[in-house]
Amino acid sequence: MALLAGTRLGPYEILAQLGEGGMGEVYRAKDTKLDREVAIKVLPTVLAQNPERLARFEREAKVLASLNHPNIAQIYGIEERALVMELVEGETLKGPLPVETALNCARQIADALEPAHEKGITHRDLKPANIMITQAGVVKVLDFGLAAVAQDPASGSANPSNSPTLTMQATQAGMIMGTAAYMSPEQAACKHVDKRADIWSFGVVLWEMLTGKRLFDGETISHTLADVLRGPIDFNKLPKETPKPIRDLLQRCLDRDIKTRLRDIGEARIAIQKYLANPNGPEAEVGPARPKLIWLAWGVAAFAMAGVAALAFVHFREHPPAHPRAYRLQLEPPEDGQFVAAATSVGGFAISPDGSAVVYVANVKGKTALWIHPLDSNPRMLPGTEDAGFPFWSPDGKSIAFFAGRKLLRTTVADGTPLVLCDVGSPRGGAWSEDGRIVFGTFGSGMFQVPESGGTPLEIIKPNASLEERLWPQVLPGGRLLYWNVGGNLERGAYAASLAKPAERVKAITSDTNALFAPGGDGKYYLLSLRGAALLAQEVDRDSLRLKGAPLLVGNPVGSSGNTAYMHVAASANGVLIYQPSALARFTWFDRSGKALGTVGELADYSTFRLSPDGRQVVASRLTPGGSDLWLLELERGISSPFSTGRGPHAYPVWSADGNVIVFSGPKSGLVRRPVRGTGQEMSLVPSSGLQLPYDWSRDGRLLLYSSGRGVWTLAVTKDGNPSPEAKPELYMERQGNLTGVRFSPMSNPQWIAYYSNESGRYEVYVQAFPKPQSAVRISTAGGRWPEWGPDGRELFYVSADNKLMSVSFKLAAALEPSAPSELFALPGGESAFSPYEVTPDGQRFLVRTPAEQASRSLKVIINWTDLLKRGTEAP
User: Fold this and answer.
1) Residue 684 β-bridge partners
2) What does the pLDDT look like over 102-131, one tens digit per residue?
């Protein structure tokens, strides 16, 4: 809220509002103690109400205040969450200027930067708007160092709504940064920034003073950043009267290779002073400089920054070149954080419709939340989005919807507070239509739509007796819907229907995960899907969704969450594709203290795995080009062999008590029994058209525990895994929330089960009586998943919200008496879509799926991805 004239902040009386800066509203005020006028910047609420950031701001302001220099606007102090500064009367710097005038101004700018750099302070936002020229011709550099001060130390990321680089001309406040034209390549690339970034910006400002034109001035910010990162700099465009020493100085300042760029701004000051002292000296010839062979350096610099998010949209053009080249880039997580892959109802990422920003779920220092990453600036956490999952964008790119705590919420990209739209059960993706509707899928509860303003969800596709699951909706042009279906009488794959008549569907493509309709940016349309870990694209007719030609390879390996049938891929409407690669891993033994005892097996893309009852073998599901297969790994010899092959998926294996039989979820989603040895054939246990996932096999070998539809079921079986005569599945309990990971207690006659669920709004671990459910007892205290029993049933392990292996002991009596959880050790890698560990029969060692050291933490970005299809690599 704007401050009214006459408002007092300590001894300062507000006189008038001068405008809005990146750090908040700016006011002219009177210092009633010293009888002088000052400028006051009122800090944004998000900064002022954060005690840690405010304290850091105050510490940094003291350092900045020490820059007592005639060419730096002074900081006088902080008063009631407002920054008190010198009021500079004058005009902002503008070109073109006569060479001598421009150089006089440049010398003063360099003179201001020099002492700051000596103290380790970098401006980070040097531009004409931050340079004032007083009536006496004195240069004053404003907002010195505030880009660093505004940065959130906890995240290492700058909030664009707080950043002093945000201009009032930004078309989407809080999303688009207005000073891309003056950023150094490394700053635009979200890399480490030091004083050499100021030297680059100094060169850009000097260029503008001499020419009267921006050096980098694309029609959009995307084009501008593209030019900053790799566009040629034509020094012949400098005025012909520009002296050679100044041309040489500009070439050194504007060197994209930071190692050969001018190292100290003092050198620039000396070069300018030397010329001004003797403008007719032997080095003062004018005219264009001789061309230099720096094209290779430009190319190397651009591709050295291939790991930057800023490049993720540099080729967006309204009129793209005839054959735009594809670029492979990568996006790094926030400092001290990691991306959270989509699993059940947490994790995931999405790219904005125009490809200018990515929203993703990241875990930073144990806190999982949504982060917005405008691709021309640093990421920032969106407040109020803890434990979020499956984010998706509004069509205009100004808002984001997501799921958290069994609710659907939305928030604005700029600075909004999350708004609850409705309650949901177990969400499985959502989409936002152009006409203001949000469609979302659920596990076991049908598909719904709700107004973007919120309200009571309207069921548009009902669950039915055949247990069809319709997940991961995507709104297509023309009011149509694309979703993934498993179960029922339909083959698993992606189906299309109109929102007006959602029950009338047509099959678009057969796939083991969801499919994605993607405009290619080349005037064509494609369906993206996974085959194993290979991302495939097949051209499709926009209106009929009829496939054309053969599927072609786009990327490999690409990650997916098998238990949610979700591929970790997103695409914008203009040819930008982003995906999370599948992470190769191997198995590592750990003791209870967290000491690594050695690795076993080969690197592979493992998902679900279980340790045999005798602790000598592991059965593990591995992604393959054809889907996923089960493999047996002998732990003593480290030898792997295939157990189930053919078109998958084959996953979620459980062992019989004697280790002779394995039951798993087969390619038609039902329970499949197969002997470990011999030539016995696979056999379907429970005829069903719905998705069935085996959880556990009781220690006495009598019962299988599995999920189907909206319930957890048991099936009486014989010792060899055949259904008992006349045995029928019995419902143990209805699924509450997203209930999964169910385990029998290790007794000959199980009395308890452990599981985890988000029924409270956050994933927690529970223990429940068996065979008749009673009141569940919560075991975890601050979030938890993946419970596993110790050998005697008196200890339970689980994974905490910050990825630590925890232990709880209790007495198994009529009533449970759990101890407080104790930490054993931090698990390697990040949050997983599948249980990352198994415990040995004696409870003393843990077999942990461990990401390879070289496993990438990045999200992969492909610009103009359809260019890859011209190579014609067919699907594996």
Assistant:
1) 672
2) 999 999 999 999 998 988 888 888 999 889
pLDDT in tens, 274-312: 999 888 765 555 544 333 322 222 232 232 233 333 333
Separation in Å, CA 107 to CA 110, 276, 281? 5, 10, 19
Question: Which of 379-388, 413-422, 666-675, 838-847 shows the lowest per-residue confidence on average (mean pLDDT)?
Answer: 666-675
Distance, CA of 317 to chain centre: 25
CATH number, span 585-851:
2.120.10.30
* DSSP helix/strand/coil, 769: strand
Pairwise CA distance, residues 513 & 262, whole Å:
52
- For residues 329 and 305, what is the distance between their CA atoms, to the nearest angstrom? 8
The per-residue pLDDT for range 663-679, each reduced to its tens digit, is: 998 866 578 889 998 65
Condensed to tens digits (0 to 9), the pLDDT of residues 25-44 reads 788 999 998 889 999 888 76
Of 245, 202, 182, 215, which is closest to residue 106 (Cα–Cα)? Answer: 202
Provide CB contacts within 8 A for 389, sequence distance 6+.
342, 344, 345, 346, 347, 348, 361, 402, 403, 404, 427
pTM of the model: 0.56
Give the DSSP H/E element, type plus range, for residue 719: none
Q: Which CATH number fits domain 1-87: 3.30.700.30, 1.10.10.10, 3.30.200.20, 3.20.20.450?
A: 3.30.200.20
List strands edge to edge, sheet with 437-442: 427-432, 437-442, 447-451, 458-461
Looking at the domain covering 312-582+858-871, what would its CATH class be? Answer: mainly beta
Please, which residues have CB within 8 angstroms of residue 43's CB and are 6 or more apart in sequence?
Answer: 23, 24, 54, 57, 81, 82, 83
Work out the angle at residue 472's Cα, subtended by the Cα atoms of residues 689 and 374, and round it to the nearest 5 degrees.
Answer: 160
Q: Which residue has the higher pLDDT, 592 or 292?
A: 592
Could you give the strand order of the β-sheet that contains 12-21, starting from the edge strand earlier in sequence? 8-9, 12-21, 24-31, 36-42, 82-86, 75-78
User: How many Å apart are CA 503 and CA 505, to the nearest integer?
Assistant: 6
Is there a common fold for 312-582+858-871 and 585-851?
yes
Strand residue runs (E) in 477-611: 480-486, 493-498, 505-510, 516-519, 525-531, 534-540, 547-555, 560-561, 566-567, 569-571, 576-579, 585-591, 596-604, 606-611
CATH number of the 88-305 domain: 1.10.510.10
How is the chain split into domains, by residue range?
A: 1-87, 88-305, 312-582+858-871, 585-851
Average pLDDT score over residue span 408-425: 89
Q: Taking CA 14 as the corner, what is the angle to CA 12 and CA 19, rounded to the nearest 5 degrees?
A: 125
Cα–Cα separations (whole angstroms), residue 355 to 393, 580, 862: 11, 16, 11
CB-count burial class (<10 Å; 0-12, 13-18, 19+) for 10: middle
Mean pLDDT, range 417-446, rounded to an integer: 88
